[in-house]
Design goal:
By secondary structure, this protein is an alpha/beta fold. Helix 2 packs parallel to helix 4 and helix 4 crosses helix 5. It is built from five helices and five strands; from the N terminus they run αββααβαβαβ. It holds the Pfam family STAS_2.
Length: 144
């Protein structure tokens, strides 16, 4: 028997893996920016960003996260995966800090998963390293 918490964790993981698969399979150049979203239950949304994140991509992401439907879909929980961000400036970190603050005030749980090294550098440049709780993937290697 699976607990409700276990089912919720499984749905979160499946949604996160789904958006990662979507950004990885996008028929674009390696550094082309891609944003993908997937619902994993009422009020729960996973989002992944990949490629080169410049000011234009930050503006697109800001507009997406401000859309009424996206806010409704992520009213309870927003999981953001940045493992495929190749390069970015501090603008992404600042945007996510504003989103995190606003969404937490609205009662939404915000989780940042698998930040790329490029995003970590952007966090440091934006002096926001203490603002986020970051969840990193556990990398397992095949035996042998």
């Amino acid at each position: 028997m699976t607990s409700a918490w276990g089912r919720e964790q499984r749905r979160r993981l499946e949604a996160t893996l789904g958006v990662l698969a979507e950004v990885a399979s996008a028929p674009a150049r390696e550094d082309e920016p891609v944003i993908a979203i997937r619902s994993f239950g009422p009020g729960r949304l996973a989002l992944a960003v990949a490629g080169t994140v410049d000011g234009g991509v930050v503006d697109r992401l800001r507009a997406l996260l401000d859309e009424r439907l996206v806010r409704q879909l992520s009213a309870r929980e927003l999981v953001i995966d940045l493992s495929e961000v190749r390069t970015c400036g501090p603008g992404l970190a600042r945007l996510l800090d504003r989103v995190r603050s606003r969404r937490i005030a609205e009662g939404c749980r915000v989780e940042l998963r698998n930040p790329s090294e490029a995003f970590g550098t952007g966090l440091e440049k934006a002096t926001l390293t203490e603002a986020f709780t970051v969840y990193e993937a556990v990398h397992r290697h095949a035996p042998g």
